[in-house]
Amino acid sequence: xxxxxxxxxxxxxxxxxxxxxxxxxxxxxxxxxxxxxxxxxxxxxxxxxxxxxxxxxxxxxxxxxxxxxxxxxxxxxxxxxxxxxxxxxxxxxxxxxxxxxxxxxxxxxxxxxxxxxxxxxxxxxxxxxxxxxxxxxxxxxxxxxxxxxxxxxxxxxxxxxxxxxxxxxxxxxxxxxxxxxxxxxxxxxxxxxxxxxxxxxxxxxxxxxxxxxxxxxxxxxxxxxxxxxxxxxxxxxxxxxxxxxxxxxxxxxxxxxxxxxxxxxxxxxxxxxxxxxxxxxxxxxxxxxxxxxxxxxxxxxxxxxxxxxxxxxxxxxxxxxxxxxxxxxxxxxxxxxxxxxxxxxxxxxxxxxxxxxxxxxxxxxxxxxxxxxxxxxxxxxxxxxxxxxxxxxxxxxxxxxxxxxxxxxxxxxxxxxxxxxxxxxxxxxxxxxxxxxxxxxxxxxxxxxxxxxxxxxxxxxxxxxxxxxxxxxxxxxxxxxxxxxxxxxxxxxxxxxxxxxxxxxxxxxxxxxxxxxxxxxxxx
Length: 524
Known about the structure:
The chain is an alpha+beta fold. The chain has helices spanning 2-34, 62-73, 92-100, 113-118, 132-144, 148-153, 155-176, 187-204, 213-233, 238-241, 253-281, 290-297, 308-339, 342-355, 371-383, 416-419, 467-484, 520-523; strands spanning 76-81, 84-89, 183-186, 393-394, 399-401, 404-406, 411-414, 485-488, 512-517. Helix 9 crosses helix 11, helix 9 packs across helix 13 and helix 11 crosses helix 13 (308-339).
């Protein structure tokens, strides 16, 4: 009898849940039929209850499907993700209006499952609500890690790691070059190790490779945790569409996210503990990395409901994950584009030979003179920004966007991939043409978020704070790589440009290239 009653209770609960869903679904149609304001168009093909959930969950990547919808319904439309309305925009003027006139209204983040679990329930800068706590953490990062003075002090770290990576490439060539004087290198891995070493050194004083065995094992685990962190943050789950069904954990993603969060948190927590012990046991006053800064600055154990330990970890984690991954993704796309457009690769190397010469290494002061290299970086950001869809925002007030009424609570997605391919702005928008940034129409465009036809780092108050560092790192790594090595693909094959799903959209397949030194003096 107990088993019978238990089954009866389960069936009753399921029926009640389905009834609630049905009521919500019917009310949504009642609201739609009785609205008096003009709302953005909604594409057809929505499922009952789930809405356009299939758009965000394959088989095509979301930005591609949303781009096709924009071709049919225009550059501003609404899709339904379960109980949520999502405004999708891919027009320069509308984007400009959003991030100027309505910037404060769209500076909040939606509370979705991945952000709660992987973002320390709002303690992470990337996912915390817009307000005083966000402003205070943003200020710490901007002043203590990404200010011009701090970047200059950390310049030696970037230079050391880049020089070490170049030396390792030369050593690999000496040991494993083939009969044609070339060595096969997987560049995604090479870029990844370089950026991981640099980011970990700046944030936590660690190295991904080249340290002792225990440290290398820790940082290897950290690298894998970062990959999973970015992967799960970019997934759209049933729980995001229908939060009241999150307890069902369809696909087990909630469980997987919790495991990734625990793994990443454990590694970063151990490093924070090490920094605290060294600081307080030795009475150290020298600030060596960003964790030292956070330990010194964050002392209050009750800031917006979070203790100091949580704030430090929640701030460092996205800096490590974002700093290492996004730069690697963009460098991989940049080199892939050059290998598929060899004329541009040759022009970049010719420019380096002319502006820098063959007797010394390129340095940061040379970048301003490498105008074609700058154009290559901009064109890479245009075609392959690290994130094809900007991280979701949420409207905190009713407002009018593009002539349409947008109610409070609506999510906002900017389809950056589509925006950067607007044929009204860019001629031959799908072609790789760095030369377009040497013309009067586009020469003055920068990446600071105020030229709204080119916003790879986002725009408005929540624009990526590390944009300046990422931009300079990309130029230096790409310039140094092109100056030192001849690069080609096996059998001169074209590089596969398929993109992955996730918070960042990296190249799916490895980038295997043939490398040989350009100058005898360098490889001697």
